[in-house]
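Hi R.,

Here's the input for the flavin-adenine dinucleotide complex you asked about:
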Amino acid sequence: MTDYLSTGTLPEDYRDLALTVRDFAQSVVAPVAAEHDANHTFPYKVVAGMAEMGLFGLPFPEEFGGMGGDYFALCLALEELGKVDQSVAITLEAGVSLGAMPIYRFGNRKQQEEWLPQLTSGRSLAAFGLTEPDAGSDAGGTRTTATVDSGEWVVNGRKQFITNSGTDITTLVTVTAVTGQTGAKKEISTILVPTDTPGFVAEPAYNKVGWNASDTHPLTFTDVRVPEENLLGERGRGYANFLRILDEGRIAIAALSVGAAQGCVDESVRYAKERLAFGQPIGRNQAIAFKIARMEARAHAARTAYYDAAALMLSGKPFKKEASIAKLVASEAAMDNSRDATQIFGGNGFMNEYAVARHYRDSKILEIGEGTTEVQLMLIGRELGL
Ligand SMILES: Cc1cc2nc3c(=O)[nH]c(=O)nc-3n(C[C@H](O)[C@H](O)[C@H](O)COP(=O)(O)OP(=O)(O)OC[C@H]3O[C@@H](n4cnc5c(N)ncnc54)[C@H](O)[C@@H]3O)c2cc1C
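And here is the predicted structure with flavin-adenine dinucleotide in place:
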């Protein structure tokens, strides 16, 4: 079914899901988005609503409490949420694609049974701790260490910019850590750290430019001791496994970005029809109509890019290049559209209560998180043999 996904002819079950999430986004998320943004508060009630709808379990099998859907279904939900509130969309994206997915992909049966039901139900959140003060784009530069002592891993180090890591419902952080060294080559593994483990601290939240209702913290690990069986996946495969998670995650971020880009189009069309200047709606001016037409073209092209990457991934074909292309063009579409939408809204576009103003502040991080624009270009170039 996913061999060929067209933006115009979605199979019925996908279309129904998108419409259900669209309705939730309009009726539950949109009314409180500006307030959470202004107060920098995590939207617990909205998250509980998404949990009730099963969104945190979308791409997981029913045996782990999931909805039995697939990654493309998650992307459709992210697109709809991204139209109205990027903070809510990234909370879901990080919870599923970065939080639960590593355990589903690389965990053993015991780890899956322990963690997945609570994560897929949305009762709790897991975070993905890769980035460090000295290891961002160059994530292999990890300095956090984990050493074995009396049957336990002892984790020491720092992570930064970690999404969903300090909410009241966060129960787990999956961290990359150096577990050995062969010559100059670091052995990097992944360790599961429950957030109630002594020595683990989620430091105060960042004061961000955007995504204000999304939860982001620096983390410190001081002699954090967890059982040796908290190793996730094979020892020494931690970095490679996280890179696979990021390849998939780029399709999800692209979907969220398309939502943002489309949200800006929808808001602009409405405003351009209503706002009068010089005795007529501003949309009658070709300069405005062309701007909005170009915005629509960007959103549409970016959507086809993420549909294509998702279709390749789901059919088991290589999708690395297409995922990077989708992330690149979709994040740029979101940034460009949010800038144009703000211009179309004039002074109102600079007022935080307007959705386009939020998109303007929120969209910048789309070109940075889960691999910057430059990293996507490096990856695409590498896939081309350059
Ligand atoms: C709100 C937010 C949420 C986040 N959530 C998470 C999370 O949940 N988990 C997590 O692990 N991380 C998370 N991150 C971290 C994010 O993925 C990193 O910020 C990102 O990968 C960039 O790393 P950096 O900030 O260290 O920038 P740097 O790597 O220092 O890059 C700085 C600049 O140099 C450029 N650059 C670097 N190397 C090259 C090169 N070789 N060629 C050309 N240009 C280059 C980059 O593109 C960038 O423009 C989050 C970040 C933010 C802001």
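One thing worth noting: Residues 94, 98, 127-131, 136-137, 161-163, 208, 211, 216, 365, 368-372, 374-375 surround flavin-adenine dinucleotide (CB under 6 Å).

Cheers,
M.
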